[in-house]
């Protein structure tokens, strides 16, 4: 989502035309985000405010993927949750009880109000036997003022205190891609991942057997690509290029 469709709360040129082109051709799609803070409804509203219209059912977050994973692993389980409405709502709808008394899991997600007290509780619960899950490994997140510490950074703090490494559900874990493919009813051979990060989007697509398109409208510059031992299928300046190709096919 960020860096592909929107940047700093403004639509990236061509984003609306690209999505409209997919819809005109009947191509199913999902907008993926590792951000677990917001519900799908919240994200759809934020996208509209940025100038991009995406139905909420076409949004798939790391919070939803985490809730789906836990519901499959331990139906009706319990969790101590550090996160915001996107994560707590997803777990509630998956049938999970949220508690600080001997939970099955400690689940760490994105929040702008990490507290020492809640992190301390998480450390103690994990040391007492709770399994450690995190929605995504991103060390930082974007803001208008610059990078902010994100889930991966706080997970590292808890890991260091407990000696326990979390299981990360979000990108680049192929699990998130597989759950997205299942929602679409799609096969990897006929699906393309479009993203602005080599270490999450392209890697997740590559490991899931998808074609990958790296857009240079986000955090990655063309010179960054050579630092990685893998390459995307294509590199384009932005989704405006893909929108133009779709319009030519439609014509």
Q: How would you describe the overall organization of this protein?
A:
With 251 residues, the protein is α/β, with parallel strands linked by helices. It folds into 2 domains: 6-62 and 171-250, Rossmann fold; 65-168, Rossmann fold (3-Layer(aba) Sandwich), CATH 3.40.50.1000. The chain contains 9 helices and 14 strands. The protein has a 5-stranded parallel β-sheet, with helices on both faces. The protein has a 3-stranded parallel β-sheet with strand order 12-13-14, with helices on both faces. It has a two-stranded antiparallel sheet with strand order 1-2. It is globular. The two termini are 27 Å apart. The relative contact order is 0.15. The mean pLDDT is 94.
